[in-house]
Amino acid sequence: MEEKVVFDLSGKFREAFNYFNEKLFDARLPQVVITTQKHRGAAGFFLHDSYCDRAFKEDGKRDASRFTVHEIAIMPDGMYERTVREVLSTLVHEMCHLQQHEKGKPSRNGYHNREWANFMVEIGLQPSSRGKFDVRNPELTEKERKGAVEGNSTGQNMSHFIIPGGRFDRACAALLEGGFRLDLDQAPGLKLKAPKSKFKYTCPACGLNAWAKRDLKIACGECGKILEMEKTDDDD
């Protein structure tokens, strides 16, 4: 009987989460839901209290939840041209957010503060608004180094680069040497397109055109008619 191949990308990230939790966080981090989902403009994210238990009363109606579970998501469309080492560094980046939520003091939603940056450096990732193309990154090629600048270590939109020889680098090398692999990538044709932010409106009387956000009521200054919004692929 032919053996069936089972693909479980989230399971591979679960395996990596447990490994790095032990090696880098002394197994202090709680278990989370790990997902892979499409979210343009991010390699991953951490969302606290994203899931709750399914609790129902005897009459079948929903009961109050007894506990919640956090989520770490990895974006498959951000994996395609990145090495396994780089993808796993995103997982650990989000684990630092989890550590701060559990043990520290996070700032407003989405802001990467100094405490989080210190957690990152401690486990071997240098936070940077420039990502791996930060001039401080010793792994940049000579070509990449030309024109590179030093990024910010805190801020709203943050990435990082791997510190060569740091704790993450050494732990990741041992994991990969042990045979860990990510066997799947999102097919390149399925990458998300940028969401449309402006739509074309046309006056049905004089043909005047205007561009604005979706589903607005815009009157033509010449005719007084309401402009009609263009049809989109999402429209019936």
Describe what this molecule looks like in 3D.
The chain is of the alpha+beta class and 236 residues long. It has 2 domains: 9-190, no CATH class; 196-236. Helix content is 26%, strand content 16%. Strands 1-3-2 form a 3-stranded mixed beta sheet. A 3-stranded antiparallel beta sheet has the order 7-6-8, with no helix packed on it. The chain has a two-stranded antiparallel sheet with strand order 4-5. A hairpin with a 6-residue loop joins strand 6 (199-202) and strand 7 (209-212). Residues 232-236 have low confidence and may be disordered.
Keyphrases for this structure?
236 residues, 2 domains, three-stranded antiparallel β-sheet, three-stranded mixed β-sheet, alpha+beta
Q: Strands, helices and their partners?
A:
Layout: H1 9-25, E1 33-36, E2 44-52, E3 68-74, H2 84-103, H3 114-122, E4 125-128, H4 142-145, E5 159-162, H5 167-177, E6 199-202, E7 209-212, E8 228-229
Parallel strand pairs: 1-3
Antiparallel strand pairs: 2-3, 4-5, 6-7, 6-8
For the termini, the CA-CA separation is: 47 Å
The value of Rg in angstroms is 23 Å
How do the strands line up in the largest sheet? 1-3-2
- Number of strand segments: 8
Helix share, percent: 25-40%
Low-confidence stretches: 232-236
- Per DSSP, what share of the residues sits in E-state strands of 2 or more residues? 15-25%
Globular, elongated, flat, extended or rod-shaped: what is the shape?
A: globular
Counting helices, strands and paired strands, the structural category is alpha+beta
> Biggest β-sheet, characterized?
3 strands, mixed
